[in-house]
Design goal:
alpha/beta, globular, binds adenosine-5'-triphosphate, six-stranded mixed sheet, 10 strands, Rossmann fold, binds magnesium ion
């Protein structure tokens, strides 16, 4: 599902280039689940952004589901993301003017889906129920707690039935019981829908539930 070969990533900064990832290799199979751990500032979000085609590596290659994403043009990258990848961001980026239910449906707006809108809406409602937001569907993001915003973003990441789910701290602002519920949902999605799952987390309990754990260290992933 994911094949990453010798990628490096440097950022241009005022103090000169800052190399965050260095000759990193990584492989994930179709129905696998993987945790990525490591201290703050080591490049975990940077790496997820590359896997999600939100940014490009400085060198090296990334193939996801047979598509070389390291060289995609912006428009092709956006289409690929929309069709194949669910992204749970560390910052949630919910649209403030839309309700929770509308936010979950936003990834459908790109269009071209065969599913009748009523079915999509029912799936959106079911996802919101699974993250415990059945009584908050008509709220706007500012009317939600931090953990509720995160859960709305998780429902949104699943609406397009991605092949790959990238999650950056999906239990970051949640109490242990709610975090457990979210872990269950992610793993259920991974097992039943055979969605590959890559989770960045500082939560050891969540990491332990994934099939494998890698630590990001000195720009590389160590198993
Ligand atoms: N656009 C950018 N330009 C310059 N430096 C950046 C940029 N984005 C990130 N960095 C730097 O790259 C390093 C890795 O950042 P990244 O966000 O990937 O860390 P992280 O492992 O996700 O940390 P955390 O656990 O705190 O979320 C940090 O030191 C950060 O300051
Ligand atoms: Mg991060």
């Amino acid at each position: 599902m994911i094949e990453v070969s010798r990628i490096s990533k440097s950022y241009e900064t005022a103090a000169g280039p800052l190399t965050v990832l260095r000759d990193l290799d990584f492989m994930v199979g179709a129905a696998e689940s993987v945790a990525i751990v490591g201290p703050s500032g080591t490049g975990k979000t940077t790496f997820l952004n590359l896997l999600g085609a939100l940014d490009r590596p400085s060198s090296g290659t990334i193939t996801i589901d047979g598509v070389s994403i390291d060289a995609l043009e912006a428009e092709a990258a956006a289409r690929f993301r929309n069709r194949s990848i669910g992204f749970i961001f560390q910052l949630h980026y919910l649209l403030p003017q839309c309700t929770v239910l509308e936010n979950v449906l936003v990834p459908r707006l790109a269009g071209g889906w065969d599913e009748p809108p009523a079915t999509t809406r029912a799936r959106a409602e079911s996802l919101l129920e699974q993250v415990g937001l059945q009584d908050r569907m008509q709220h706007r993001p500012y009317q939600l707690s931090g953990g509720e915003q995160l859960r709305a973003a998780i429902a949104r990441s699943l609406i397009n039935q991605p092949k790959l789910l990238l999650a950056d701290e999906p239990t970051g602002s949640l109490d242990p019981a709610t975090g457990e519920r979210i872990a269950e949902l992610l793993l259920r999605t991974n097992e039943h829908a055979r969605v590959a799952l890559v989770v960045v987390t500082h939560n050891p309990a969540l990491a332990q539930r994934m099939g494998k754990t890698y630590r990001l260290e000195n720009g590389r992933l160590v198993g």
